[in-house]
Amino acid sequence: MADTAALIQPDQGQDATLIHLVNKDGFDNWAKKLSAAQRAALKAQKFDGSGYQVGIVPDGDGWFAVGGVANPDKLSSWCMAKLAEVLPEGTYRRADGQPGPALHGWQTAQYRFERYKKPEQPVGPRILLTKEAGRIEGAIAEAKAVCLVRDLVNTPAEDMGPADLEDQVEKLAKLHSAKVSVTRGDALERDYPMVHAVGRAAARSHAPRHIHLTWGKESDPVLAIVGKGVCFDSGGLDVKSSAGMLLMKKDMGGAAHAIALSGLIMGAKLPVRLHLLVPAVENAISGNSFRPGDVLKTRKGLTVEIGNTDAEGRLILGDALTRASEEKPDLVIDFATLTGAARVALGPDYPALMTRRDETAQALIEAGKANDDEPWRLPLPEAYREWLNSDIADTNNAHANSFAGASVAGLFLDKFVGEGIDWAHFDTFAWRPMPKPGRPKGGDAYGLRAAWHMLKARYAGT
C-alpha cells in the first residue's frame, strides 16, 4: 500500500483542492451558493448529498470536490473514505473544517495488497491536509496497524507460516528494542504440550512454536496480549470441507491483531510491562496428527479430551493464556478467529467480546463506539460449563450440542486464565467479505482500535 505517513500532512497553506462535505438534508441550501452551471454539473452526476456520494464541481479554470456524509458536524472514521478511493491523485483539504476522525479512513481507503499482483493502472497518493497537528501521529500509527493486520491475513499460508509470524515479531522487537524468546521442538512438547500437539503434523518448514516478546519496565503493570496463530487450519482429522478451508489462511488473524496492537503499545511508549504471546502452528493432517478422543496434557496441568480436532485454536490459546497468567498480569487480552458461531450471531462487522469484569467490557465497548470499531459482548454463562465435562479427562475441548458455540469456547479459555485476573477475549473474524468505503474486501482488523483506545485510557490517561 501507499506509505500512510505520506497520506496525511500538516496544513501549512500549500496548494490543495477543496473538499466540501454536505448531507442530503442540507444539500439544497448549500447548493444555492453555487452557479447554475455548477448545480447542473452536480445534477448530471446525480449528486444529492447521500452518504458516500462524490461529486466534481467545475470552478473557473479548476474544480473542487463534494462528498456526501451523514452529518458534516460529526464525522466518522469512514465518511471521507470514498473520496480517498475515487478522487484523482493530488493534495486536498476540507473546505469548512478539519477532517478529524476521517483521517483514519482516508488512509485505509488507499490500502492495496500488491504482493502478488500489481495494478494495471497505478494511482498515486491522495494527500489530505489538516490543521489538527496533534492527531496526525496517532492517526498514522493506527492506520499502519490496521494495514499490517490486512497484510498478514491476506498473505497465503505458504508465505505466512509459523516461521513467518516469528519473523514479524522479531521485526517488531528490533524496532522497539524488545526481547523475543521462541520455544520449539522438545522444549515445546514439554512446556506447551497443546501447542505441540496441534502443530506436530505440519511439515518441518511450518513446525510449531511459541513466540514470546517482552518489553517495558518490570516495575510497570503487566499487560499480556495473546494472539491465536493458526497459520492454516485444515480442521485436522475432523477435516473441513473445501469451502470451509478456502479462507483458512486467515486463521492466524488473532496473532495479526496481537502483533499490530503490541506495535501500537510500544510505539506510544505506554507505561506497561508488555508480554506478547503468539502460539504459532499449522493444523495439518498426517500420520502423527492428534486424534479425536486423544487426551492432551497442558501447561496448566489439566487434561483435555479432544472432542473435535477442528476446535484447535482454543487448545493453543490455553497454553499461551496459562503462560501469560504466570506473570500475574493486570490485564490479559486475547484475539482469536475462534468460532463460526460468533459470525452466525454477529456477522462479520462485530467482533464478539467476552470478559470476566463488567467494567472492562464497558470500557472496550465505549472505546469501540467512539472509534467506529464496536465490539458486541457475549456472555460466559456458568450454566454452560458442564457442557465441556469429559468422562475421562478434566475437560473436553468441544461440546456435543450446537448451542452457544462462541460462549462455550470462551468458557474453555477461561479455565486457563489465572484466578482473579482481568481478562478480555475477542472472537474476531479478521476478514471482510464485502467491501465498504475505507475497508476493502479481504483481511481486516476488528476490535483492534477498540482495544487500543481502551488501553490508552487505562494506562496513559489519554
Could you list some keywords that capture this structure?
462 residues; alpha/beta; Leucine Aminopeptidase, subunit E, domain 1; Aminopeptidase; 2 domains; nine-stranded mixed beta sheet; six-stranded mixed beta sheet; 15 helices
Could you characterize the architecture of this molecule?
The protein has 15 helices and 20 strands. The chain is of the alpha/beta class and 462 residues long. The chain has two domains: 4-110, Leucine Aminopeptidase, subunit E, domain 1; 142-460, Aminopeptidase. Strand 3 (54-59) and strand 4 form a beta hairpin. Helix 8 packs antiparallel against helix 11. The radius of gyration is 24 Å and the shape is elongated. The model has no long low-confidence stretch (mean pLDDT 97).
Low-confidence stretches: none
At the fold tier of CATH, the topology name of the largest domain is Aminopeptidase
SS-based class: alpha/beta
Q: What is the domain total for the residues?
A: 2
Query: What would CATH call the architecture of the largest domain?
Result: 3-Layer(aba) Sandwich
How much strand content do the residues show?
Answer: 15-25%
Give the strand tally: 20
Distance between the terminal alpha carbons, to the nearest Å?
A: 29 Å
- Fraction of residues in helices? 25-40%
Question: Count the helices. How many?
Answer: 15
Note the overall shape.
elongated
Mean pLDDT: 97
Keywords: Aminopeptidase, Hydrolase, Manganese, Protease
Organism: Qipengyuania gaetbuli
Family: Belongs to the peptidase M17 family.
Protein name: Leucyl aminopeptidase family protein
